[in-house]
Design goal:
7-stranded mixed beta sheet; 6-stranded mixed beta sheet
Length: 474
């Protein structure tokens, strides 16, 4: 394969001083050579975005919408090719990759719709003494240049969640995709060019995250930074960003509570997919399950039986459910974390097997809350199932976490559901569903070390625009 991929700056492919090989996470074979941007190239990308800024700000809403609709149509035309690209660079099983492409199309469609409804409100000025004879309203204006830093796990859709709203709002973008998954981002740049995006409105710089990220976050021409990744990097960005707007989508160890009296059969397939979809490398992957003692044994038995049905193998095989982790180091780390949990008294009910770069779906019982698989973000095909004597106890366990992105609870009791909805310290509570539920227009984001700000197209547009008050004296 070995294609050589350049940087995308000001509407053209730009050579970099250095190229490095990109390897398949599944086979370890080289799939491409990727440009590594240094300070001069990043500066040129920001410069191009800055130059395109007035053009994008002036572009009428209906034109921005039409452009995003054309992009969605182009992705639809090349859906299978896009899915294969994701499967190749991210080792995401083809059937999961196809779902991601569908969601990406939806995200750009929502972005097209939101471009048409960015509006303010009128303010009744005479509500205050001295405010008589005035007409006031707010407008929302683009920020300017947005820096987007994206992760490997949804290389198309999490890029769409930053690029779509940024374009909808009339901003320009410098995109730094994850080191392992630049190919789909470069393909997007090509598609946006085809859809008629002006040169410079999107620039893609690939290479070392620490180098490029630092340059973007500290450059005063950049007005907002939107980042999805680890809390450590997120906190560093926040510290360096000064007065820039910052949206951070960070870690999670998402939990599910299973109350007594639940029809286990009706939800077990969903729970297993929530834990092991894309080998657990999902921000809202189901990592912790707290099950009421009355249904605990049944739940564990059925969950492990269902997990055993998952097909492990080549991501390009349409029957594969679970494939390689993103790097051999992650496979290694996962096995170390499982071993640590065992030392702390956990029982391995399934998995704990390695097959090359693949870790088999692993189920751990009676896990000590201090074990890394419980209190840190596993980002691996590992789920813990612990017994609780009440939903109150479960809520307490869920909240005893550094993170708070989404949580789920299965219960038949309306009071229990409302109590969980109010008391769970998370950005989203899914009742009678797994914490991994997401559609692309809902507000999405967390509390605590899960980050700050919200995505979901309308909410991202709000973060990527500035409100201005206009007041007339009659």
């Amino acid at each position: 394969m070995g294609m050589k991929k350049h940087l995308y700056i000001n509407g053209t492919w730009a050579e970099a001083g250095e190229y490095r090989p990109l390897f398949s996470p599944y086979s370890g074979e080289q799939i491409a050579e990727i440009a590594y941007a240094g300070a001069p190239e990043v500066d040129r990308a920001i410069e191009a975005a800055e130059r395109a800024r007035p053009l994008m700000a002036r572009m009428p809403a209906h034109e921005r919408a039409a452009l995003l609709e054309r992009l969605a149509a182009l992705i639809r035309e090349n859906a299978e090719e896009s899915a294969r690209l994701i499967a190749l660079e991210a080792a995401k099983p083809l059937k999961t990759a196809r779902l991601e492409v569908e969601r990406t199309i939806m995200t750009y469609k929502f972005s097209a719709e939101e471009a048409r409804r960015i509006h303010g409100e009128t303010i009744p000025m005479d509500a205050a003494p001295g405010g008589e004879d005035r007409v006031a309203y707010t407008i929302r204006q683009p920020l300017g240049v947005v820096a987007a830093i994206t992760p490997f796990n949804f290389p198309m859709n999490l890029v769409a969640h930053k690029v779509g709203p940024a374009i909808a709002a009339g901003n320009t973008i410098v995109l730094k995709p994850a080191g392992q998954t630049p190919l789909s981002a470069l393909w997007l740049a090509e598609s946006l060019q085809q859809a008629g995006l002006p040169a410079g409105a999107l620039n893609v710089v690939t290479g070392r995250g620490s180098v490029i990220g630092d340059l973007l976050v500290t450059d005063e021409r950049i007005k907002a930074v939107t980042f999805t990744g680890s809390p450590e990097v997120g906190i560093a960005i926040r510290n360096k960003a000064g007065l820039k707007k910052v949206t951070l989508e960070l870690g999670s160890n998402s939990a599910l509570i299973v109350d007594q009296g639940i029809d286990i059969d009706a939800m077990i397939v969903r729970a297993v997919s929530g834990a092991f979809s894309y080998a657990g490398q999902v921000c809202i992957s189901l990592q912790r399950v707290y099950v009421h003692e009355r249904v605990y044994d049944e739940f564990v038995r059925k969950f492990t039986a269902e997990a055993a049905k998952l097909r492990v193998g080549d991501p390009l095989d349409p029957d594969t459910d679970l494939s390689a982790l993103i790097s051999p180091q992650d496979a290694e780390r996962t096995l170390q974390w499982i071993a640590e949990a065992e030392q702390l008294g956990a029982v391995v009910a399934a998995g704990n097997k390695q097959d090359g770069r693949i870790v088999h779906p692993t189920v751990l019982l009676q896990v000590n809350p201090a074990a890394k698989v419980s209190c840190q973000e596993a980002f691996a095909p590992v789920v813990i199932i612990n017994k609780v004597s009440s939903v109150e106890e479960a809520i307490h366990e869920v909240n005893a976490s550094r993170y708070g992105l989404q949580a789920g609870i299965y219960t038949n009791d309306i009071r229990t559901a409302l109590k969980a909805a109010e008391e769970l310290e998370v950005g989203g509570v899914m009742i009678n569903d797994i914490p991994g539920f997401r559609v692309d227009h809902m507000p999405y984001g967390g509390v605590k070390e899960s980050g700050t700000g919200r995505e979901g197209v309308k909410y991202a547009v709000q973060e990527m625009t500035e409100m201005k008050l206009v007041c007339f004296k009659k």
